[in-house]
Amino acid sequence: MNQAVVNVQNVHKVFGKKNENQFHALKGVSFDIQKGEFVGIMGPSGAGKTTLLNVVSTLDKPTDGTIEIAGTNITSMKQGQLADFRSEQLGFIFQDFNLLENLSIYENIALPLSLQGVPSRKIKPSVVEVAKKLGIEAILEKYPVTVSGGQKQRAAAARALVHEPAIILADEPTGALDSKSAKSMMEAMLHLNENHGVSIMLVTHDPLSASYCERILFIQDGALYKEIHRDGNRNEFHHQILDVLAEFAD
Amino acid sequence: MLLKLSFSSMRKMFKDYLVLLFGLTISIAIFYMFETLAQNKAFLESNAMISSIVFIFHVGTFILAFITLFYIFYATSFMLSMRQKELGMYMTLGAKKHKVAQLMFFETFFIGIISLVVGVIVGVGFAQGIAGLLMDQLDFSGEGFHALYKSSVITTVIFYVALFLLTSIVNAIKISSKSVLDLLHAEEKHDQVKAKGGRTILGVIFAVILIGAGYYAMFNMAQLAQFGVILAAITITLGTYLMFISLLPYLMKKVKGIRTLNEKGINSFTFAQLRFRMGNLTKVLGTVAMLVALGLGAMTAGLSFYNNVELQASMFHGNDVTIHQPTEKDIQALNNMNTTEENTYHYKVDDNGVYFLKKDLLDHPPLIKQFNPETLEMPEPKRVATDLPDAQYSNSGAEGMKNIPDPWSTALSTELRADFQMFGDRDIFIVDQAHYQKVTTAEQKVVVARVADFMAYLPQLEKIEKRQQQLAASYTGEPGLEMAGGSKFADYMAYKGIASGTIFMGFFLGVAFLMMMASVLMFKLLSSASADTHRYSMLRKIGVRKSLLVKSIYKELFLLFLFPGLVGLVHVLVGMQMFSFILVEPYTKIWLPISIFIVIYGVYYWLTVQMYKRIVLPREA
């Protein structure tokens, strides 16, 4: 089932106007993410990780190149269409959770479904099901401020997942978590990937989090620098990642 | 050092402070405007139709002070919320708690004093501008009104200095009672909406009882008099606040509980925003409701006094215009009017009397109105039906004659204007043809007419009235004597002269209150909007169409505007009962002030949405 969920072709992103001080954030990046794959994006600060995530997530437009997600070319779509596309095909997990603090956890998770006009009676089973997958059924009626960071991030993951998007885009999901919560969050994501076939693109600078991925793309100065695959166990992969990161430091 | 730091950061947050200053300034300006009237006893007493007007203004001052108290506390606590993160940081860096509390105290007080100075100046300007405009429109000289009124300035300054001292102390205490961590993380806290069942029900019951008592007082204002005014002022103000504090959050919770509604589209977010807002802004919404009630109430009262002028003028007259010995110009003017009835009566005048021809009167009996001062109801016009069997009647009990029977004497004096003011001390007679022939002077005629719209012909009627006055002067021999009444037009002018002071006050205050309402709401909006920005940007990220977000904003703000507007409107509708013992029909043309209000409120709603959208929605390429 080698089917690309994400296909990035020669993408450039330039900030700043012509004749002004331009900054080339992405310089012809190309890669694929297959369906059911768990791919990590790593690189030092300023390498272009966030820019890459922004263009893949349709929040920003590439200056040049094409991006296809689930067979749709998103580079030529209009703002309104893009919003619809995001709400149907993409799931987001952010570093700072981005839950709406005036909605309960349940309402937060249900929001993407409500937005797609799913009738109320069908929403509840979906929310409960996804909450179970992430082990947060007990806190559904609580408000974000009253739960822990780890629980918040699981809630965010549940929200990203509830409408069964083509891919989940995670931006430093463990960045604001303590190591224990981070570990359990990554295990939950791995579980989703392995047992439910969820495709995930993870942007992180944390080698431990990255070691849960199957494949990692390293970028530096706006271009693909290296790609590594996990062949052995997670521990070995972790070391492999640290080795590549050490190359950056040199 | 800290002071320097805080000043520099205040400079940075200049925009936010501008909003705060604006809000405070308007509040002070309006308070001052109100006081220019309230404290000017001489002006009030000589210009109002209501004898206890000074007292009513005292009650008004009380209500306004109460509202202001809420408003100022809200505004200054907004300032606290703006500053606490930074002050928390100073504390982490080693600033002492009492220093920071001191700083907060001085900042609050400083802002207060600046706005007080600006507010009083703006208030004088407003008072001058609005009063000038209104006096112009109403043809009202407004003697004795001073835009810059010393004792009002003093009252305003004392009141606000006390208020700012109080709020500064409260802010300082609030800061020092919080831990450093609380301050640092203040922004992340969300205000939990508490809607405890038992207390809510108790609150609602109390609110209903209070408002009910206030309404009862307004219905029975004639009996309760001053006590009624005080009762209504206290109970309705408290009841309104209580209702917004208890009922609204509870209602919102219930609405949110309806799953099918809540889970439709972006509703869950819209409702959550509303619930969050209403929980936070109950007091502001209560304030807005009260200001709407006061502003709209003052305008409606003013307008109904204005309408009342015509009603009062037509209370005694079945006909709209009476022309003795019409000239060419009079006939032309009358022909140009849309008349619904026109009757002509012949008479003769000699040195002793005025003789009306009986046949004319009986052939075309005029419409008259008989006003009953006890019921105070608008009398319906009735046609005189009393027969006149005798050959002669007089109004002075002349020898061998009966007195003119009552409906006819009313008809002659008020409709045909055969009275002292027209004919001096001549007697008035009704005589048959035979006796009429015996009077040797020339025959004259008087035209009496009803027109379709009295108010539409005021300029023509004024000219006719002038010529009638000249005629009257030739009979009474006193050219300088102005006719104070007699015709409907003369009555109208007389009543208008008395009422325009009251109308002026109504509109002056109406405009002031509605302006304050606008500033309160705008303040609410701008002070909380920036906190919402991240929510909207997040929604946009997960793929909510911009149009949907805009719709949500429209809906949310609509409901926020709706509740206080409705409550205020109901207060006004019931409140107009208060005037039923001085106004003939307090509800006449009430649609007019209500429409004016709806238009102003609607425009304001629209503007609010636009500004809010600009702050909150993420900008897109």
From TrEMBL, chain A:
Domain annotation ABC transporter: ranges: 6-246
PROSITE patterns (UniProt xref): ABC_TRANSPORTER_2
Source organism, top-level taxon: Bacteria
Record keywords: ATP-binding, Nucleotide-binding, Transport
SUPFAM superfamilies, A to Z: P-loop containing nucleoside triphosphate hydrolases
Gene Ontology CC terms, in alphabetical order: membrane protein complex
GO terms of molecular function: ATP binding; ATP hydrolysis activity; transmembrane transporter activity
Family: Belongs to the ABC transporter superfamily.
Protein name from the UniProt record: ABC transporter ATP-binding protein
Protein source organism: Lentibacillus populi
Upper taxonomic lineage: Bacteria, Bacillati, Bacillota, Bacilli, Bacillales
TrEMBL record, chain B:
Domain ABC3 transporter permease C-terminal, chain residue ranges per copy: 61-179
Gene Ontology cellular-component terms listed: plasma membrane
Membrane-traversing stretches: 54-82, 103-127, 147-173, 200-218, 224-251, 284-306, 503-526, 557-584, 590-607
Primary location: membrane
Subcellular localization: Cell membrane
Keyword Protein biosynthesis: no
UniProt KW Phosphoprotein keyword: no
Membrane topology field: Multi-pass membrane protein
Entries under Pfam families matching the protein: FtsX
Keywords recorded for this protein, A-Z: Cell membrane, Membrane, Transmembrane, Transmembrane helix, Transport
GO biological process, one term: transmembrane transport
Family label: Belongs to the ABC-4 integral membrane protein family.
Name by which UniProt lists this protein: ABC transporter permease
Protein's organism: Lentibacillus populi
